[in-house]
Amino acid sequence: MIGNDWDEILKSVETSKGFERFMNVVKQKYKETTCFPEYENIFNALKLTPYKSVKVVILGQDPYHGTGEAHGLSFSVQDGIPLPPSLQNIYKELYSDLGITAPISGNLTKWAEQGVLLLNSVLTVEKDKPASHKDLGWNLFTDHVIKLLNMKETPLVFILWGNFARSKKIYITNKKHLIIESAHPSPLAASHGFFGSRPFSKTNNFLISTGQTPINWDLKRVKE
């Protein structure tokens, strides 16, 4: 289903009758209404960041609901799409934290390829209807993913922005991992604890302290 080591790790889920029924419900939603991201990109976060490669987890809530925006990575939009307000604020904090100027594109694929798992809790949404699939059952799947990541021996960084993401803290019990939490980067909340939280430098300092390669957050300077 995914095409890397996640398939083996999630084998008991992927091969279960319950998950098969659930995915049939998802397929039906895609047939009946316009949904995002494109069906083949639903599991893009896991495809781009294999389990063995995960260093950082940035948890989002559900995909962008506008045409052409979502492509399966939390907070990320496809090339050529105007930057959503939350992502604009993420880039502002990146500049404040590390002096990295914002790229034109909101495509965060290069972060994902370095081990930043950009995971939404809900992986699909109906066009122009935010949170429309929140009760579909995706949380059972993505909470399981978080629990599997919690079991990793390699120290990880979990970045939890906003109350929804912070509610997932109950699944992160391994003391090896670092949890960075703050307000959400949305315009309504960013001034109440997101700006000035310095998640990018804190992440890299932790990775270096645990003998890992830091993330190159500068999308303009990531080597191809």
List the defining traits of the structure above.
alpha/beta; four-stranded parallel sheet; two-stranded antiparallel sheet; 34% helix; 224 residues
Any overview of this molecule?
The strands form 2 sheets. The protein has a 4-stranded parallel sheet with strand order 3-2-5-6. Strands 1-4 form a two-stranded antiparallel ribbon. The protein has helices at 6-9, 11-14, 17-32, 44-48, 85-98, 109-112, 138-150, 162-166, 199-209, and strands spanning 35-36, 56-60, 116-120, 125-126, 157-161, 178-182. With 224 residues, it is an alpha/beta fold.
* Largest beta-sheet characterization: 4 strands, parallel
The residue-averaged pLDDT reads: 97
Structural class: alpha/beta
What is the H/E order?
A: HHHEHEHHEEHEHEH
Strands in their spatial order, largest beta sheet: 3-2-5-6
Per-chain topology:
Blueprint: H1 6-9, H2 11-14, H3 17-32, E1 35-36, H4 44-48, E2 56-60, H5 85-98, H6 109-112, E3 116-120, E4 125-126, H7 138-150, E5 157-161, H8 162-166, E6 178-182, H9 199-209
Parallel strand pairs: 2-3, 2-5, 5-6
Antiparallel strand pairs: 1-4
Brief synopsis:
The protein has a 4-stranded parallel beta sheet with strand order 3-2-5-6. It has helices at 6-9, 11-14, 17-32, 44-48, 85-98, 109-112, 138-150, 162-166, 199-209, and strands at residues 35-36, 56-60, 116-120, 125-126, 157-161, 178-182. It is of the alpha/beta class.
